[in-house]
Amino acid sequence: MDENIINQIREKAKELLSSGTVECVIGYEAGTDGMTSRPAFIYEASDVERLVFDNTCTHNLATYLINKKTNKVAVVVKPCDARGINVLLSERQIEREKVYVIGIVCQGVVPVSWSGSGKDLQMRCKLCNQHAPVIYDFLIGEPAVEPVPTVSPWTSVAEMESKSSAEKTDYWNKQFSKCIRCYACRQVCMGCYCKECFVELLDPEWVGIKIDTSENSMWNMIRAFHLSGRCIGCGECARVCPVDIPLGLLNMKLAKEVAEHFEYRAGLSAEVRAPLATFNKEENLGIGE
Amino acid sequence: MSVDYQPKIIGFLCNWCSYAGADMAGTSRITYPSNIRIIRVPCSGRVDPLFIAKCFKEGADGVFIAGCHPGDCHYVEGNYYARRRFVLMGSLLEYLGIEKERYQVEWVSASEGKKFTQLVSAFTDKVAGLGPRAEGQ
User: Fold this and answer.
1) B49 vs A contacts (CB less than 8 Å)
2) Residue B2: pLDDT above 80?
3) Which residues on B lie below 8 Å from A165 (Cβ)?
4) DSSP designation for A154
């Protein structure tokens, strides 16, 4: 736990709340298990002592901005979550003037589960090449020179791609058969903000109530597709999945395709349109001859 | 695979070019396999990836999509957007274990009746060659 970072967050939160600049500060506080942290919503300047920051702060707090649109709020973000804010801004889901971004130069977070936290960094943090937030109003920490990742971020995707159709079918069927369609992956995602999700529509009914792997696959396939070119890779969906479906492996595949075809990575700027919301007349993309 | 296995293919054809192209094939009396069940859509941009996923979920052996050539879209730019979606959806399907031969996107204009029949015949042969979909695919 870095006292310096925590003190700066608390000071800033106190300043923002007591001056009335923001209604609420969304940050992290210590969880009741004494090992991990959890999201905290601070409304009073006297409560800022609750705020903490350590390597168990895995949650993407940008998710909560969607339901806090009326008054100005401050939010504590890691670099990955900051990309999420850019996605929400570019999709006109939040207004820049109503969000005060407290960006943190992040050294990575550890896996967090019911039973506590791990020691080793999460895979996405090991592969991270962006330790400073892309968008912030107040920066905590010094941006350092980015290390050049030695491993390709697409290693696990390439491994999956190299399998035969039968092996892939078998693998994903095993994974999706576990799905209980609790939609935790959707609820935790900053990109899944539709008030009416396709999965709940009854007419047309895209995903039936039948307890069956085919229905589960449909949900998982379309969930991933709807996040193509929008997923920032925060990994929250996979973390909250109660049956440990490797959703990151699906999201990464689409991120890879988007990077290869459109040279795009989600959230780097709020000004650029997502690849599926625009087009280039000249591209061929291998369709037709 | 039984001898009389016939693949079930769903075809999404854009109203302005490809459906007219299929019409052209019909009025020109060119035969093509009847395995394709054609669904007329206003534009290839109307084909939501949900449609494709649903076709495969409900047991289709192949999905064939055809729209106006790029630059010829009745709605000016519908097929440009669609093109990007189809590419991503195609790679996602393949990643999930649906052979890429089961999914094809083509541009067919209203005058290309002949081309339409050739594409559909070739696609049907390809899908038939793969045999029925694997259990639970």
Assistant:
1) 222, 225
2) no
3) 94, 97-99, 134
4) T
Q: Report how many Cβ contacts below 8 Å link chain A to chain B.
A: 101
Nearest by CB to B95, from A253, A283, A286: name it. A253
Q: Do A215 and B136 touch (CB under 8 A)?
A: no
Q: In angstroms, what is the C-alpha Rg of chain B? A: 14
Q: How many Cα neighbours within 13 Å face the side chain of B40?
A: 8
B5 and A CB contact within 8 Å: no
> Is A275 in Cβ contact with B84 (below 8 Å)?
yes
CB contacts of B81 in chain A (<8 Å) are: 276, 279
Provide the shortest C-alpha distance from residue A251 to chain B (in Å): 10
Dist CA A212 CA A176 (whole Å): 9
For chain A, give the mean pLDDT. 92
Q: Which band of pLDDT confidence, cut at 50, 70 and 90, is reported for residue A190?
A: very high
**Per-residue confidence (pLDDT) for residue A94, from 0 to 100:** 94
What is the token pair recorded at A276?
Answer: 């599926």
How far apart are the C-alpha atoms of A63 and A41, rounded to whole Å?
Answer: 13
Quick one: pLDDT at residue B136? Answer: 61
Confidence (pLDDT) at B32: 95
Q: Is the peptide bond before A204 cis (omega within 30 degrees of 0)?
A: yes
B50 CB neighbours in chain A (<8 A) are 198, 206, 222
Query: Does the pLDDT at position B135 exceed 90?
Result: no
Burial of A144 (0-12, 13-18, 19+ CB in 10 A): exposed
Share of chain B above pLDDT 90, in %: 91
Percentage of chain B exceeding pLDDT 70: 96
Cα diameter, chain B: 46
Q: How far apart are CA B95 and CA B82, in angstroms?
A: 20
pLDDT digits (tens, 9 = 90+) for B93-109: 999 999 999 999 999 99
Residue among B81, B84, B97 minimizing CB distance to A172? B97
Asked if B85's CB is within 8 angstroms of A276's CB, the reply is: yes
Nearest to B84 among A173, A224, A279 (CB): A279
Q: What is the ipTM of this complex?
A: 0.91
At residue A148, what is the residue type?
Answer: V
CATH (one of 3.20.20.150, 3.40.50.9100, 1.10.10.10, 3.40.50.960) for B9-130: 3.40.50.960
